[in-house]
Structures are given as C-alpha cells and as structure tokens.
Design a protein that fits this description.
Strand content: 15-25%
Helix content: 40-55%
Shape: elongated
Radius of gyration: 27 Å
CATH topology of the largest domain: Beta-Lactamase
Strand order of the largest sheet: 2-1-5-4-3
Largest sheet: 5 strands, antiparallel
CATH class of the largest domain: Alpha Beta
CATH superfamily of the largest domain: GAF domain
Distance between the termini: 55 Å
CATH architecture of the largest domain: 2-Layer Sandwich
Length: 344
Amino acid sequence: MYAARGGSKGLQVLDLEASLEVIAHGGPPGLAVVVKQIADLLGAESALACCLAVSESGPAFHGVFARGIEVAELRPAVEAFLREWLGVSGAIDPLLPDPRQRNVALTLDDVAALLGRENAPPRVPMAQLGIAGLDVLGVLLCDGANALAWVGAMRRRSFTPSERALLQALVPALLERLAQERRLAEAPVVVATLAAVLESLGGQAFLMLGDGTLLQANSEGRELLGRDPRGPASALREELAGRNPSGYSVTHVAAAGHPTHFLVVRRSGAADPGQRSEALGARYRLTSRQRQVLAQLARGHCNKAIGASLGCAEGTVELHVSAILSKLGCSSRAETIARFWTEA
C-alpha cells in the first residue's frame, strides 16, 4: 500500500480507501464520493470519473461525476471529451482494452509511449471544458477485459511518477467498490432468477446453508414445509453425514469467499432418474457408463459417492461428469441437474 511510505499523501490515500468502503443505502455512487478527493490528492484543477456501458457502437456513460467542470451545463462537451479519450480510435479502446492499459494509471506521455508518438492523442481534448493543454492522468478500471469505469485528473503541470503511483494505489479499492455496487444493483435480478430456477426444477426445492438455515424455497417446497417442516434439514444432515438421504437429492454449491450452500430437492415417486437418464442418454449419445453417472448426478451425489456406488475411482467419475457436461452443453453440475429434471 502506498500509505505505508508515510506522509500526508499516504494518509489521503487511506482516507480515500475508507470513503470507498462505506456504502450507504440509497447513497451516491463511489465515484461521485471520491472524485473531489482524487483532484485534491493529485493537486489537479479538474477531475472526471465515469461509469461505462460498452457496446459495439462504442462507450456510453451512465454516470459522470466531476470536480472543476460543470457537468450539468457541459454534458455534451464532457461526453465528447470522454469519447475522444475512450473512443475506439482514441487513446484507449474500451471495447477491447490493451492489457497494458487495464487498471494501470497512465499519463498522456505513458499513452503516447504505448501507442507510438504518431498515434498519440492530442493534448487539446476539449477547449470548451477549460482543459485545453492540460496533462491527463487516468486509469481504465476493468474486470478482466470488461471496462467498468474511467477515472482521471487534469492539470497544467505534468503529472509525476509519484503521483501516478498515488492513483495506482487506489485501483484495488475503486475496483472493489464498483464490484460491490454491481452486486447490489444485480441482487434483485439474481433473487428473481433463483426463484424462477427453483420453480422450474420439477420438485420441492430448497436452498440451504450447512447448518440447516433455509434461504429460499419454491412453491411446492413451501407446501411441503407446512406438512414436514424438518424434512429438508434432516435430508441435508444425512447428506453431510455421508449417507444418501432417501427421496432427496443434495447438490453442493460452492463460491470462493462464501460458505457452501446446498440445493436440496425432493422428487415425486414418479420421477425415476434411471428412466430419465436413459432417455437423455439416447438423445445426447451418452455411453452406458455416462448414463449411470448421470442418474447418480441427478440425485445430487458427489463424485466420491458415485464412484463408491458404481465401483470406480473418483477420478474416473470426474472424467465422466466432464464428458456429460460437454455433451449436454452445460457449464456446471447445477445446470446439468436442472436440465435433467426439466427437459421434456
């Protein structure tokens, strides 16, 4: 961390990081919170920050925040400047950012060195904004190759390597804030999608934590809980104890940094995984062994349990599962199970 070097600038970086960590319900976006602080940190006359929505037609700006520039009055000029700097033919291409420009603080001279002097962007981006002839120090914030936002500052004096390091030190906190805001914005859609997936599973379905906490259930599942409130939790305990719960399938859902979740599904007696596996196996040209593995997979069994049931090594089961996912065109076990129980 840059602040480890000490000094007032290091403390300002810490203050900025602290500002980015606080998300108030209904509060302003992180870029709006820090754009003034970034200008102060870099001793800049002006600063701009924008969230990007990138399509084949070029970048669109769904949030533009500034210090020293009247965005409301000069919005067309602001967007014209940003398109010049972030246009497909400009200094940085947000459609396919150069890996050397992703999450890297760059000055005009840095960009010129990357592109070649003959291709460098002009130093007079927009006279209307009062930033003609100013140096620019900015960073294109990316998630992989996906451009999320651009943050930059402008001033008459050229930016120094130490000031570039200051902006670079803020990149992790800026990326984390953008990721948190995106998760919050997507949360209602994710919850609605999960509810739709659970309804489509063709059984009584529950999303649970390992301690039995119920997070979500479909309509059939809620009806079952009215009759047998302990059934799903009991099935999960059986699964975690290494015993196959009768009448239930349990799928482990793991995500880095989060506790393991469990998709617990109770099938009706008429739903025979063996028969469905044979039908799907014929449709997707699965081998006999792959059909057997698919039937066990549909019951929510892990590779170790499938191997024990079929008398083969866990590594062999993993190879069969990979082949099944490939033939069915699925990207995960959960998607395969959903396809298994819902495909006509």
